[in-house]
Every structure is written in C-alpha cells, then in structure tokens.
Specification:
Blueprint lengths: L1 H14 L5 H8 L3 H4 L8 H13 L3 H17 L5 H11 L16
C-alpha cells in the first residue's frame, strides 16, 4: 500500500512539474548572441523565444524554475551581460513579472 501511495505521489507531482531548464535554454538560445555582446540588439527569434517562455511559465512554480534556470545559464555563459539580459523583456514587449538581475531571489 505504501509503495502504491508513493507511486501515485510521484505520478501526480509530474503532472504539475515546473518548466524544465531544457525548455528555458531552448527558448532563450537565440538570445545568447545579444546577451554576450555579439549583436547590438535582440533578434526576432530571441524575442519570439522570450514571448514563448513567458507564455509557458504561467504559474508561480514555473516562473521560479525559469528564474533559476536563467541564473544557471548566466553563470555558465562566458561574457554573459546581466544588463542586456535584464533589458530583453522590455525590448521584446513582454512583462516577465520579475527583474532579470544576478541578485534576484527566484524563490520569491
């Protein structure tokens, strides 16, 4: 009985799982050139990815997960510029609901 309950909890928790880092990475990969200084403005593909991610991250757990993933991406991308990343939502006409800064607390 305990094993069945554990399996049910695992299955039900997967239904409400937060957005994955692979989704965040895929959606935002066209923005890498801009946030590392390789291009002077975000591409259409970048803004499309920002809009797609914003629409997909519709719940608080999704937004927290996306925020954490963005911070992970930033820490692993050579030349990542937080000022450029923080300007993306405005440049793409999207309100993401949290500031994109290195000091943002993704848990809040």
């Amino acid at each position: 009985m305990a094993a069945m309950l554990g399996a049910a909890l695992i299955i039900s928790s997967g239904v409400n799982a937060a957005i994955s880092c692979s989704t965040v990475t895929s959606d935002l990969s066209p923005c890498l050139s801009y946030v590392t200084g390789g291009s002077s403005q975000p591409s259409g593909g970048c803004c499309s990815g920002v809009r797609t991610l914003n629409a997909a991250a519709s719940t608080t757990p999704d937004r927290r997960a996306a925020c954490s993933c963005i911070k992970t991406i930033a820490n692993s991308a050579p030349g990542f510029r937080w000022d450029r990343a923080g300007s993306l939502p405005g440049q793409c006409g999207v309100n993401v609901g949290f500031p994109i800064t290195p000091s943002v607390n993704c848990a809040k």
